[in-house]
Amino acid sequence: MTTYNPLLDLSDLPRYADINPVHVDEAISQSIAQAREALKAAESMSKDAVSWSTLIEPLEAATEQLSRVWSVVSHCHHVIDTPEWREAYNAHLEDITAFWTTLGQSEALLNHYKTLADEPHFSALSPARQQIITSALRDFKLSGALLNDAEKAEFLELSTQLSSLQAKFSENLLDATNAFAHYVTLDELSGLPAEAIDAMQAAAQADNHDGYKITLQFPSYFPIMQYADNRALRELVYQAYVTRASDANTTQPEFDNTQNMQKILAIRQRMARLLGFAHHADVSLATKMADSVTQVSDFLNHLAAQARPSALIDFEELKQFAKETVGIEDLQAWDTTYVSEKLRQARYAFSEQEVKDHFPLSKALDGLFHVIKSLFGVELVRTEAQVWHPDVQFFQLKKANTVIGGIYLDPFARTGKNQGAWMDEVRSRSLKTDGGIQTPVALMVCNFSPPLDGSESTLTHDDLITLFHESGHALHHVLTQVSDIAVAGIRGVEWDAVELPSQFMENFCWDYDILTRMSAHVETGESLPRSLFNKMLAAKNFQSGLQMLRQVEFSLYDILLHEQYRAETPDAIYSILADVRSRVSVMPTPSYNRFQHSFGHIFSGGYSAGYYSYKWAEVLSADVFSAFESAQANNAPLLSIELGQKYWQNILAVGGSRPAMESFKAFMGREPSVEALLRHSGLLSAQPHYKPLKEVSGMSLLLPF
Question: Which segments constitute the Peptidase M3A/M3B catalytic domain (predicted)?
Fold first, then answer.
């Protein structure tokens, strides 16, 4: 009698509460075996027998089962990082990578796709399926399908090594973060809000320790940097944070990511050369809107040029304020966040904590759901479902009382959970064998401060923006109307366009009417006062030049590192960043700062030679939002359901079924302009003179000169 394995139960939502690491081996082994059989059958098919229904559909069904099972394993590994989950994940990572690489290298499968790309097959396909075939032909080449046998074997070996190294990078960063604990007295926490102090006391008590526990989890780390009057404490915590998982942290050599980074970069470079590219950056850009490193660099350098004058003024003001008001003669990196908060309070007469007290999580969610309903006519209803942690909530999306999708929310930071915020898919929209629709489901993971002593968690305004950002990704996935899995939702969307919906949603966090709906002071229940909102709005672009340069610095480092790195010059992981900082940054950085050793986006995430995508997509999202601003200026509501439906149909609904530029033009009726981004950032001159920069993968960026 076969034992029931909940990980293999794909009849509905994942049975997270029943799934544990002991189920992984059977589920992955069985799913890979079935996928291999489907691949073998597809490869052996005669040319005359090739059609969408005979080739794509059975192969897609088998590989989708593998994807969904592995998605649960990968997710649990990221949010429940126990030794058992880590072992289960790593035990099968090589097999998973090998299968997908082998599929991508199949010359027989490539030839079958070429058959579908020829007439009369191609013209009989829907536009979405034509896009799938076109993208697949490109991806076969990028997976090494055109290599000889020896090169394929090397490429496969490199792929499996790369996946293991990337996983190890992430694990080292998590372990280094979790390993730090510093206990202090109450006197040492002068300046911190009571909420942060209470959380640190609770953390110490959980360890059966007196005093107050500081960790490198963001809800603990950031209040120290922002509010702690104790300069020595700020320096200690800053140094611990920026040396995580690096050679500069001599107390934790076992977590040093230096060799992992160098090996990752060397492998990516070798794989690029095998494919006939000069470097990994060109491989990455082959699937994006931007065409070349030069275009990306020009784009970033133009943003830096716009931001630098403002950033220089910001930094000089900060140094002067530190000296004259705070009493710091030599402003250092561990002072900037603290002094910036003091300056912001002095200039705009409010604190971040004052804002935070107005935004309980439940009210924030009510406000978010109101925005979604107003724009799209879609309701989110909390529903019972199996979850991986008691904090997790599940919501069904309903349109006219019909369930069209679902979203999980895992809101709070905790030990064993990766830092940051992200969205991932649980399943994609597709046609079921009975002709019905499999509804798409996404998950949103955040790391907000958890509630204490039965009180509700409250969110900073930055937390609100994060919540709306991740909801934009989730909506992109669950509001798709494409039923071909390969291009449904976020799948198949160019990486430098995938942030458009997420950054679009952020803009609604700056509307007073929306903020009043999602606010209720924790003590008085009062909504956000207009006076406080006006102060927030006045401070919106506080140090925006510095913030812009920071993002440009990260993006340039990423793209240039993947263009210039060579195995024979491993120290380039340091020298390239130093060079970028010398040209872009206006704030000095300590020599021991090892930001790059925790740059998970490019070393363990999907953003290698693609971090620029955040700024690239922000151009698109700000421009799209300008249509809503224009409507509001003409007395239409900002939450216009007419514009919301147009945005849904032209951008969200189509997923990756057509190029992102086509979707943008379908909504805006023109090519993108950077004007809205610069205006939102407070970096647009009063009377700009525009001229076309040049075509950037079809994007005519209009920049003020």
Answer: 224-682
Listed residues 243, 265, 294: the one ending a domain:
243
What is the tens place of the pLDDT at every residue in 660-687? 999 999 999 999 999 999 999 988 753 3
Structure tokens at 460: 């900073």
Q: DSSP letter string over 547-569?
A: HHHHHHHHHHHHHHHHHH--TT-
Last residue of a domain, one of 485, 509, 538: 538
From 352, 470, 499, 618, active-site residue: 470
Domain tally for the chain? 3
Q: At what angle do helices 83-104 and 24-43 cross, to 10 degrees?
A: 0
Residue-wise burial string across 319-345, b where 16 or more C-beta atoms lie within 10 A, e elsewhere: bebbeeebebeebbbbbbbbbbbbbbe
Contact 162, 264 (CB under 8 A): yes
Q: Going along 282-391, which residue ranges are E strands?
A: 379-382
Residue 317: what pLDDT? 97
**Per-residue pLDDT, 700:** 35
DSSP reduced 3-state for 393: strand
Bridge partners of residue 444, in order along the sequence: 409, 423
Let me know if 563 is a catalytic residue: no
Q: How many CA atoms lie within 13 A of 649 on its CB side?
A: 10
**pTM of the full structure:** 0.93
Same domain, 382 and 506: yes
Same domain, 92 and 227: no
Residues of the chain with pLDDT under 50: 1, 686-705
Q: Among residues 579, 581, 582, 544, which one has the least CA distance to residue 564? A: 579
469, part of any domain: yes
What is the phi/psi pair of residue 104, to 5°?
-65, -20
Q: Under DSSP, is residue 699 helix (H, G, I), strand (E, B) or coil? A: strand
Element (H, E) at 10: none
Q: Is residue 191 part of a domain?
A: yes
* CA-to-CA separations, 140 to 11, 132, 145, 620, in angstroms, rounded: 31, 12, 5, 29
Q: Residue 556: what pLDDT?
A: 98
Dist. CA 20–CA 22, nearest whole Å:
6
One domain for residues 376 and 489: yes
Element (H, E) at 315: helix 293-321
Cis amide linkage into residue 120, ω under 30° from 0 = yes
